[in-house]
């Protein structure tokens, strides 16, 4: 599924390097923006990898930072070129969370807390279809069909024979009881979760109702980690009109500790499977 060049990751790595060069020069983003006659927000977006970086941008920034080693300039220029290539998801048109898909495509491991629904990577087609259509009632049928296909395409990251994504999911018990689509859809969905949870790289735990208040009470989030040490971990929080990406070590650490608390408060793996199996049988009645 992943191509040799992931544009999202290239932009992110390039942005990190440009930030490093700016800091070595002892300049603020505002000072750089003034020198280049652009907005400070543009410099920030370039550095956080949320915006495509042109080779001209790289050339201008290297000039401001007085980078004398042409090999460094050439390397950054190539990264800028690579970052403008398209990932597989671009074939589906404008996807609201395309930045996240790029990160997920390159991630080595993913930890998810999901309080309301079965998380996307574990969804069956019927469940995904019902979730997407229910959550986007004003979208066209064609648009919703496209979103379903993108969601299913993402799942090849956990079924790949070579280097599959290591996935750890904490599901709130509420997600197992909410009838999405129909009782038959729910039965098939829970059986699918049980099947996937048998894979050695996938762990599923259920956070039971009787825990009460817990570390994930504020809502859904994911933590992405990468094999390359140059790529810092990212906390992803999905929104309705915009998403939040947290990369500062302090923020990532805080959410990581919260996730450890969620794991500890959840049923263990075997208990979770037993609960999912029992509810799947209930839906079959």
Automatic annotation (TrEMBL):
It comes from the Bacteria. Gene3D superfamilies: lambda repressor-like DNA-binding domains. Residues 18-72 form the HTH cro/C1-type domain. It holds the Pfam family DUF5753. GO terms for molecular function: DNA binding. This is Transcriptional regulator with XRE-family HTH domain. It comes from Streptomyces griseoloalbus.
């Amino acid at each position: 599924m992943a191509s040799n060049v992931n544009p999202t990751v290239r932009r992110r790595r390039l942005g990190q390097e440009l930030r490093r060069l700016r800091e070595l020069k002892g300049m603020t983003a505002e000072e750089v923006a003034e020198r280049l006659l652009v907005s400070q927000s543009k410099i920030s977006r370039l550095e956080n990898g949320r915006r495509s970086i042109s080779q001209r941008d790289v050339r201008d920034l290297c000039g401001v930072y007085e980078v004398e080693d042409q090999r460094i300039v050439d390397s950054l220029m190539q990264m800028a070129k690579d970052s403008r290539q398209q990932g597989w998801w671009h074939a589906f048109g404008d996807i609201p969370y395309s930045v996240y898909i790029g990160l997920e495509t390159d991630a080595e491991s993913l930890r998810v807390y999901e309080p309301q629904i079965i998380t996307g990577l574990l969804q069956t087609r019927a469940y995904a279809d019902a979730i997407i259509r229910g959550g986007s009632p004003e979208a066209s049928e064609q648009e919703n069909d496209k979103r379903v296909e993108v969601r299913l395409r993402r799942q090849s990251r956990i079924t790949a024979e070579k280097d599959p994504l290591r996935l750890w999911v904490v599901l709130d018990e509420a997600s197992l009881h909410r009838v999405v689509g129909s009782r038959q859809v729910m039965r098939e969905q829970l059986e699918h979760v049980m099947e996937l949870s048998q894979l050695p790289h996938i762990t599923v735990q259920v956070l039971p109702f009787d825990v009460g208040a817990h570390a994930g009470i504020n809502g859904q989030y994911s933590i992405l980690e990468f094999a390359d040490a140059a790529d810092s971990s990212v906390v992803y929080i999905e929104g309705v009109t915009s998403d939040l990406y947290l990369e500062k070590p302090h923020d990532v650490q805080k959410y990581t500790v919260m996730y450890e608390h969620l794991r500890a408060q959840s049923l263990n793996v075997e208990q979770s499977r037993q609960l999912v199996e029992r509810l799947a049988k209930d839906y079959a009645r």
